[in-house]
Amino acid sequence: MPSATRAYDSSAEDADMGDSTPPSAQQPVYTQEEGDPMEQDEEDNEIAEEEEEEEEAQRVRILPGSTSTAASFEFLKEGHTLGNALRFVIMKNPDVEFCAYAIPHPSEEKMNLRIQTYDTTTATAALEKGLQDLEDLCDVVSEEFWTQREAFMATKH
User: Fold this and answer.
1) d(CA 99, CA 85)
2) Taking a C-beta distance cutoff of 8 angstroms, is the pair 89, 130 a contact?
3) 53 or 149: which carries more pLDDT confidence?
4) In the chain, what are the helix, strand and coil shares in percent, each to the nearest 5?
5) Sign of the CA dihedral 79, 82, 88, 91?
6) What percent of the chain has pLDDT over 70?
7) In whole angstroms, what is the distance from residue 126 CA to residue 86 CA?
8) Positive or negative, the Cα torsion across 85, 91, 92, 96?
9) Average pLDDT, the chain
10) Distance spanning both ends of the chain, measured CA to CA
């Protein structure tokens, strides 16, 4: 037979709820020494933005274990678009023996590029030439696109 249940008197154990505002809804009181945290956040954001600009300037680094003719480079915040285009352009250089790129993991914004050259040039020089050649190629394509677009718009009207 089940035991009898005991009546529970919750009124004695309830906390005093009164008319006071919960702590999460109360406005904080600041002393002059502490200052307003929103102003501090703005200052912190400005400092963080300056640091970000400095960090953003350094988006390519040479990975450890590289030599002058064989080097691996890590590009931050880059993917297949730059990797494949750069690999293609660098392989057009007759001084380059091997060039390949890899994305180490899909959740990381990194692209690794491996360049091996003959003894006539360095891997860093091959990368610099590849980046310049790719920029020149993009300029030619962009120029041709705008020229053709303007010609099309002129015939349309």
Assistant:
1) 11
2) yes
3) 149
4) 45, 15, 40
5) negative
6) 64
7) 11
8) positive
9) 80
10) 95
Q: Coil, strand or helix: which one is 146?
A: helix
Tokens of 121: 């040039």
Q: What is the pLDDT of residue 13?
A: 47
- The identity of residue 149, as a single letter, is R
CA distances from 88 to 96, 127, 137 (A): 11, 12, 12
Give me the pLDDT at residue 15, please: 47
**Quick one: pLDDT at residue 152?**
95
Token duo for residue 1: 């037979």
3-state SS class at 70:
strand
User: Hey, CA dihedral for 8, 9, 10, 15, is it positive or negative?
Assistant: negative
Q: Is pLDDT of 100 > 60?
A: yes
